[in-house]
Design a protein that fits this description.
The chain is mostly helical and 126 residues long. Helix content is 60%, strand content 5%. Strand 1 and strand 2 form a beta hairpin. Helix 2 crosses helix 3. The protein is elongated, with a radius of gyration of 26 Å. Keywords: Signal.
C-alpha cells in the first residue's frame, strides 16, 4: 500500500512539474547563473557590495553573453548552404597544399557532375 501511495505521489509530482512555463525555467536558470557567479566572485576574494564584486559579476555576465553569441554564430554558420562561388574557390585551390583534397568523405563536399571532381568550402578540388 505504501508503494502505491509513493508511486501516486511521484506521478502527480511529475505531471505537475510539467506545468512550469518556459519563462519560469529561464528565470530559474538566470537565478542559478547569478548564484554561481556570486559564488565564483566570492571565491576570488571579492566581497558582496563592493565595486570589485560588481565588476566581477558584470564580467562573468558579459562572458556568458559572448559565449552564447558565439554558439548562435556557429549554429548559423553551420546552416549556410554554399553556392557556386565556393565551387570556384575550391577549384582555384587545386594546387594549394594548405587545404585537404576534397573527397566523398569531406565535410560539406559536393560532386561537380560535369567534371567528376569533388569540391567544398574547406577543401581543394583534385
Amino acid at each position: 500500500m505504501k508503494r502505491l501511495h509513493l508511486i501516486s505521489a511521484l506521478s502527480a509530482w511529475l505531471i505537475l512539474s510539467g506545468c512550469v512555463s518556459f519563462d519560469e525555467i529561464v528565470k530559474e536558470q538566470m537565478k542559478t547563473d547569478e548564484q554561481r557567479d556570486q559564488e565564483r566572485c566570492s571565491s576570488y576574494g571579492f566581497r558582496i557590495g563592493t565595486g570589485g564584486f560588481g565588476n566581477c559579476m558584470l564580467n562573468l555576465s558579459a562572458q556568458r553573453e559572448a559565449e552564447a553569441a558565439n554558439r548562435r554564430l556557429a549554429e548559423a554558420m553551420s546552416d549556410i548552404h554554399w553556392g557556386p562561388d565556393d565551387k570556384e574557390r575550391s577549384f582555384m585551390r587545386s594546387g594549394d597544399s594548405r587545404f585537404p583534397v576534397c573527397s566523398a568523405t569531406s565535410e560539406d563536399a559536393d560532386l561537380d557532375v560535369s567534371s567528376g571532381r569533388w569540391y567544398g568550402k574547406a577543401c581543394r578540388a583534385q
